[in-house]
Amino acid sequence: MSEISEKFAVLKSGTPRLRNTSAAERCARMKSLWDATVERKDDLFKAAHKERGTHDLDMAAELVMLKSEVDYMCKNLAKWMKPEKVKNSLATMGKRCEIRRQSKGVVLNMAAYNAPTAESFVPMLASIAAGNAMAIKPSELAPDSAQIIQEIVNKVFPADEAEVFQGGVEVAQELLAQPFDHIYYTGGTAVGKIVMKAAANNLASVTLEMGGKNPVIIDETAKLENAAAKLAWGRVMNAGQVCIAPDYAIVHESVKEEFQTLISEKINALYNSDGAGLDKSPYVPRIINERHTARVKSLIEDAKAKGATLVSGGNANIENNYVEPTIITDVTEDMDIMQEEVFGPVLAVVGYKNREDVLKHIAPRTNSLALYIYSTNDDNIEYFLSNTSSGSAVVNNNCIQSGTNPNLPFGGVGNSGMGRIGGYEGFRTMSNERSIVHQPLDKFRDFLIQLPPYSDRYSNIIMKAIKK
Ligand code: NAD
Known about the structure:
The chain contains 16 helices and 18 strands. It has helices at 3-13, 15-19, 23-39, 41-52, 56-81, 116-129, 143-156, 169-176, 189-202, 224-236, 253-271, 290-305, 355-362, 378-386, 423-429, 456-465; strands spanning 84-85, 96-103, 106-110, 133-137, 162-164, 182-186, 205-209, 215-218, 248-252, 309-312, 316-317, 322-323, 326-329, 346-352, 368-374, 390-395, 417-418, 431-438.
């Protein structure tokens, strides 16, 4: 037996006990996780700064997501765990019908590198709320964060409740071979498909939180300066390594030039206010490693070589994992930048003349994780919302739909994923929704009419039910 399967067996052994824990006990675990995380906040700040050049306040904002999730879940968990009585139908008349949300068992949580703490612990909170044990596989690309995450988990949880497995693809593959009851995956679409195939071997349910190219639509009525400021922030945040980041902008031709100038000015005003240079700004983070820096740089180079026009930025320093915030326009479908998720601080711009063309631009990349609309025309807003599909959408802002309101479930659709997290939906994702029917045994309610040989009365009821 390998070390991973031995640890999996220990996690499995904890599940009967965890299944029967009370809301108060689960809430105590969530609070302990929060306390232990906050105790290590300075170390988490240092790790995020080393890995991604993250400003302490940006890392603190990642932790705020955890705190609000703990508070919301603890407030509501007892209510969610209560069996939910449901109404009867004609066929269940006289019986008692209810839904119980019970734990699934052991959940595997595989995380990406761009927000290691939130990606490890937000799903973990939902898993604890539902009474599961959890194995976390943080990304190997953020090893300092992964080490702290492991130390926090080891401090708070016994080995039959939670375990952290550090490592790369080999560790991930060995974990995926274990018969987990649910797999929660955050990462790219290509690996998401591997995860789903592996889950099929054990018929584990899956939540896939993936990425893609999130379009921004800016129509001729948009408040351009306001849009430019918000998009500068949305695109430079975490150096563009955000799953819901605005990836490319489809801008009405009549305002395209002005928008490009405004967003370039805003980047400078927000991130280079002292004039020392964007590369010196404490607010401009770094790309996770040289490989990804070179990848983002090559997206810019490829677009330029195929005829795109650089509006601002465009420089990169691979040894320093730095990509200058960049606006590049007149991109076309044959460019790599329109084919891959950028996951860097580069906004590609394309123009449109009528709103039907916007749908044509989006069509090859449909089902994004997010979609953003900047407009003051209600008819246009409704048109774009009704004729597109995405996991979430925001009108006249960006990046404010995740981790901000536990009443808004978060997740993707199609290429960008499946399943939801956040608040009650996170609890549901990690629970088995069990339908239960209680049959009273008195002669008035336990009439056994459906048993053969069929009576005329039964035949009449059934035949009447299928009448046109
Ligand atoms: P990735 O797919 O490379 O890695 C994710 C996880 O999968 C890691 O833990 C990694 O070790 C593991 N992995 C990698 N290759 C594997 C393989 N062959 N077999 C099994 N496991 C493997 O993703 P990434 O580069 O770390 O993250 C970036 C992606 O994550 C982007 O596409 C981004 O949009 C997406 N993302 C999505 C969300 C969301 O909530 N929807 C959040 C953050 C990031």
